[in-house]
Structures are given as structure tokens and as C-alpha cells.
UniProtKB/TrEMBL annotation, chain B:
It comes from Zizania palustris. Keywords: Cytoplasm, Nucleus, Proteasome. This is Proteasome subunit beta. The keyword Nucleus applies. Component of the proteasome, a multicatalytic proteinase complex which is characterized by its ability to cleave peptides with Arg, Phe, Tyr, Leu, and Glu adjacent to the leaving group at neutral or slightly basic pH. The proteasome has an ATP-dependent proteolytic activity. Non-catalytic component of the proteasome, a multicatalytic proteinase complex which is characterized by its ability to cleave peptides with Arg, Phe, Tyr, Leu, and Glu adjacent to the leaving group at neutral or slightly basic pH. The proteasome has an ATP-dependent proteolytic activity.
């Protein structure tokens, strides 16, 4: 069996290491934990459109792997998607659907609709029966108006006026249930979303750091990265550590000069 | 024991002023027995792009060979080197392709991009990218490395100070991890030169 020509794959998953990994698991070696996004993600519909919000902590077990990651992913100029669950799955699935939406826009010549993104996501997730662990809050404004949906890892979806997902969803939902009303203004919507995310940040251990907000209205999208920074790092010493040169014991050193790359300029066509 | 703890590893990369440093430990073990003390974990892709691979050593070597193959094809087609951001996306795609039967590796990618702007990133074994502006860590000693780097790192360090800082952070962290250590290997890359140094550490 050749497998010798490692041609770039045509796309989709490849399962050739599964047998080896199953054998290792049988021998008693535990499978690794993947980076999850812990997370509090929310969305709500206000009078002119949709506001999405997310925290920015990425966890690897109990350790914080990234203190300022981006959980609000671009799908289309008028559609954004927040992701919770396994970080690789949310990134891969949102990137994939975003590319499919772009191809669809080229084919149809029209602005993408939120239900298109929704159908592409749910059919992909359903076909993997929940093994692609991505829980998403999808929101956007298209010709038919503002839309907000939640997508679960097994492929089910809900259409809601306000939604929360992730480990901090209960903390955020309590804020929404007490303060949400229809016809919120843009400032009220952003404030409510920020309050809900802060509830998740302060009360859920899987969520933390900063608040990202994305406001989508007809014809305009504003991505407010790090809209609030309620957890600044205040304990760092101003002097910091300083190591003097030569403090580390070195056994051997090798210094290679980098040759500057030669630029090949396009010559002009010869004049005849 | 977890599959990541089979060989033991520690890799860290830090950003300085127009330069970056990538460092790794040198131990190769089979669970608690040490088999080699000169194992290479940080590899060169091209002059200004390096990748450190922690986790299962066999997967690290296989993944490195595949990446070098893909990069050479890219060089032939595009007639130039890959930018670090592009390479990070390539590694992420290669790892995610094996989503349900993954390579047990956590890469650390470090390079100089456009205008010699330093770029570092790390990924989990499925390819979830984590870009950072200061430092990235991976391996069995990662928890200690997070702590050491968090306290020792300062933004905008010159190459000499960056070398000292990353070396001290690495040596301090691997001393608290049984499965990694036995010296250190540090690569410091500036726009004009590459400095490779082997560190003297505790051999236990």
C-alpha cells in the first residue's frame, strides 16, 4: 500500500491515524484534552438589528491558555457567529461555512442570508452526529430583517429574540431574563449584552478576561473588540525581572548570518 | 499516563524587539526512563520561520517531515518562502484534517513576517490557533512555563536580554517537571542573524 505520495488531500477529514490511536488507548494511554472555549456567548435582537457578545478566555483543562482570544467569528459582512465548545471545531466550522457563503455570493450575486449560514452549519454538524463539538450563536441582518439563532453540536437549532450558550450561559441568561424587552435601542442593547457577559465572566470559572461585542445593523457592522476590560493586570511589578548578560550558562554557541534575499526585478521588454 | 506525557517535552517562544526566540528542552524519554539527552524539538522551515513540536516524539518528527514537504512544494510553486501566518494556517489545517484521529503534537510556530515583524502562535493537537503578542508555551512543563513567562516577560526586549529571559524561564520551568529538561536549546532570530545556543541545565 503506497501512501507514498502524500498529495495534498482533497478536503474533509482523514481517519488514517484512528487505528493507531485506538491501539494506544487500549494500551492504557489516555487521550488528550482539547482546548475548549469554556465560554459565555450571547446574542440579542434590538430594534435596528442584532448584538452579539462573547468573553475572551480559552481554557485547556483548568489552565487559561489564551487570555484574549476571539470568539466572535466572521461569516459574511452582515453575519457573525460566536462559538463555544472545542476551539478547533468552532474555528474550522465557521471558516468553512464562511468560505461556502462567499462562493454562494459569487454564484447568486446577492448578499448572504442568515438562514443560508444556519442551514450549512446545521447540516454539517448533524452529519457528524455531535462529534464536531461546536455550539454556536449565529446572528445577522439580511434583506428579510434581523435574525438570531443558536446551533447545538448535534445539529438542532433555535430561533430566538435573545440567546446564550456556553458554560456561562446560565449566568448570562439570568441577566437577559430580567432585563430584556423588545425594541431596545443600540446603547441599551450593547449595555445589556456587556452586563450579561460580565455576569458570565465573574460567576463562571470557564469564562473570563474581556468583553467582545459585535453590533450588526442593516448595511453596517461594528466589531467592538475588547469593548470592556474589567480584569486588568494590576499586580505586575514595575521593575520586572532583569537578567544580566552572561547569567545563563551556555555550553555552545553557533551564529549564522542570514544572507539577504536577492530581489529579481522584472526587466523591461526589449525595445525592437 | 496521558499520551502527551509519554516522551516529555517543553517548548516556549517569546517575542522581542524585531526578533523572536524559540527554546526547547533536550530530553527524550520513554515514560520515566531517559533515552536521549540531545533530542531536537525546534526545527527550521526556512531562514525566518521555525516550528517547535512538543508531545509524542514520533508524531513530532512525522509532522515536521510533512510540513517541510508542503513548504518545499510551496517554494517551488510560488518561488518564495511562506509567511508565518500562512504557515500557521497550513499547520492548523493539517492537524484539523486528523480531527478524529489526531497527531499528538502541540506545535509552537515562530517567525519574522512582513517588515521583519515577529509572529508567534501555538495550537492544541487539533489545530486551534492561539496567536499571542508576548509568549507561547507547550509541553508537559507548560503550566510552570506559563507562570515563569508571565512573571519574567517584558515587552520590547533586545536580543541579548530576550535570550537571557527565555533561557531562565525555560530552565526554571523544566526544573519543576520530571519529564523534561536535561539542558536547553535556544534559537534567537533577528532580521540579520540566527543564534543557536545549547544551555547547561540540571541533568536530572
Amino acid at each position: 500500500m503506497a501512501g507514498a505520495m502524500d498529495l495534498p488531500a482533497k478536503g474533509g477529514f482523514s481517519f488514517d491515524l484512528c487505528r493507531r490511536n485506538a491501539m494506544l488507548a487500549e494500551k492504557g494511554l489516555k487521550m488528550p484534552g482539547f482546548r475548549k472555549t469554556g465560554t459565555t456567548i450571547v446574542g440579542l435582537v434590538f430594534q435596528d438589528g442584532v448584538v452579539l457578545g462573547a468573553d475572551t478566555r480559552a481554557t485547556e483543562g483548568p489552565i487559561v491558555a489564551d487570555k484574549n482570544c476571539e470568539k466572535i467569528h466572521y461569516m459574511a459582512p452582515n453575519i457573525y457567529c460566536c462559538g463555544a465548545g472545542t476551539a478547533a471545531d468552532t474555528e474550522a466550522v465557521t471558516d468553512m461555512v464562511s468560505s461556502q457563503l462567499q462562493l454562494h455570493r459569487y454564484a447568486t450575486g446577492r448578499e448572504s442570508r442568515v438562514v443560508t449560514a444556519l442551514t450549512l452549519l446545521k447540516s454539517h454538524l448533524f452529519s457528524y452526529q455531535g462529534h464536531v463539538s461546536a455550539a454556536l450563536v449565529l446572528g445577522g441582518v439580511d434583506v428579510t430583517g434581523p435574525h438570531l439563532h443558536t446551533v447545538y453540536p448535534h445539529g438542532s437549532t433555535d430561533t430566538l429574540p435573545f440567546a446564550t450558550m456556553g458554560s456561562g450561559s446560565l449566568a448570562a441568561m439570568s441577566v437577559f431574563e430580567s432585563k430584556y424587552k423588545e425594541g431596545l435601542t443600540r446603547e441599551e442593547g450593547i449595555q445589556l449584552v456587556s452586563d450579561a457577559i460580565c455576569a458570565g465572566i465573574f460567576n463562571d470559572l470557564g469564562s473570563g478576561s474581556n468583553v467582545d461585542v459585535c453590533v450588526i445593523t442593516k448595511g453596517k457592522t461594528e466589531y467592538l473588540r475588547n469593548h470592556q476590560l474589567p480584569n486588568p493586570r494590576t499586580y505586575a511589578s514595575s521593575k520586572g525581572y532583569s537578567f544580566t548578560k552572561g547569567q545563563t550558562e551556555v555550553l555552545s554557541t553557533k551564529i549564522t548570518q542570514l544572507k539577504p534575499k536577492v530581489e529579481i526585478a522584472e526587466g523591461d521588454a526589449m525595445e525592437e | 499516563m496521558s499520551i502527551f506525557e509519554y516522551n516529555g517535552s517543553a517548548v516556549v517562544a517569546m517575542v522581542g524587539k524585531n526578533c523572536f526566540a524559540i527554546a526547547s528542552d533536550r530530553r527524550l524519554g520513554v515514560q520515566l526512563q531517559t533515552v536521549a539527552t540531545d533530542f531536537q524539538r525546534a526545527f527550521k522551515i526556512h531562514d525566518k520561520l521555525y516550528i517547535g513540536l512538543s508531545g509524542l516524539a514520533t508524531d513530532a518528527q512525522t509532522l515536521y517531515q510533512r510540513l517541510v514537504f508542503r513548504h518545499k512544494l510551496y517554494q517551488l510553486r510560488e518561488e518564495r518562502d511562506m509567511k508565518p501566518q500562512t504557515f500557521a494556517s497550513l499547520v492548523s489545517a493539517l492537524l484539523y484534517e486528523k480531527r478524529f484521529g489526531p497527531y499528538f503534537c502541540q506545535p509552537v510556530i515562530a517567525g519574522l513576517g512582513d517588515n521583519d515583524e515577529p509572529f508567534i502562535c501555538t495550537m492544541d493537537c487539533l489545530g486551534a490557533k492561539e496567536l499571542a503578542k508576548d509568549f507561547v508555551v507547550s509541553g508537559t512543563a507548560s503550566e510552570s512555563l506559563y507562570g515563569a513567562c508571565e512573571s519574567m516577560y517584558k515587552p520590547g526586549m533586545e536580543p541579548e536580554e530576550l535570550f537571557e529571559t527565555i533561557s531562565q524561564a525555560l530552565l526554571a520551568s523544566v526544573d519543576r517537571d520530571c519529564l523534561s529538561g536535561w539542558g536547553g536549546y535556544v534559537l534567537l532570530v533577528t532580521p540579520t542573524e540566527v543564534q543557536e545556543r545549547v544551555l547547561k541545565g540540571r541533568m536530572d
